[in-house]
Amino acid sequence: MTLGAVGPTAIRFENIDKRYGGLYALRSVSLTIAAGECVALAGRNGSGKTTLLRIAARLVRPSSGKLSFSSAEGAENIVARNAGFVAHATMVYDELTAEENLLLFARLQGIAQPGKRVEAMLREVGLFERRDSLVRTFSRGMRQRVAIARALLNSPGALLLDEPATGLDPQGTAWLAQTLRRMRDAGAIVADTQTGASVRSILALADA
To answer: For residues 69 and 156, what is the distance between their CA atoms, to the nearest angstrom?
Structure first.
């Protein structure tokens, strides 16, 4: 699996606020995450951990402040598009097959040779034999594998994770651990919310 396609990545949050009406989900958050760092966002429920990841994934706009990406090549726009996100919800379509889901996202992202890349990712997550099955027939763990494959399609320089091991069996968790270790060692950023099995705990399996 090709990782870190645009080189080592950094993410910078500068005075980020996020308001929903009069309620602040985030206030004056400044943080820099450097290439090769694994960061766990800790805090009580409702403290804004997932909101910060969604801002980094450009799924949510901050109310104020600045989000920036950079790489050794200075390719900020490419890096921004090259962030993968695994949410608590799988963000895949139940009425499409595993292969159709990944092909859709690969084409939306402009990935070269999408069919070849999708086949490689289905093999990577152990779902190639079920590629023609509708996602609604999958177990929660299998759906999570599709979601992780979706996030890895574009060989992200930054992987943003919200409870990534949800539903995974021990074999799936071990595979995820090895994948995250390869990404970290290749200089990618790995950031997660400190809930359930955190990335630090998962990486401990790979480093054992």
So the answer is: 12
Closest C-alpha among 45, 174, 183 to residue 197: 174
Give me the sign of the Cα torsion angle 106, 110, 114, 119.
negative
- Token readout for 202 is 């998962």
pLDDT value, residue 194? 59
Phi then psi dihedrals of residue 85, to 5 deg = -135, 125
Say whether 2 sits in a helix, a strand or coil. coil
| pLDDT at 18 > cutoff 60 | yes
* The pTM of the whole model exceeds 0.70: yes
Cα gap 153→147, rounded to integer Å: 10
* Mean pLDDT, residues 128-142 taken together: 97
With contact defined as beta carbons under 8 Å apart, do 37 and 82 qualify?
A: no
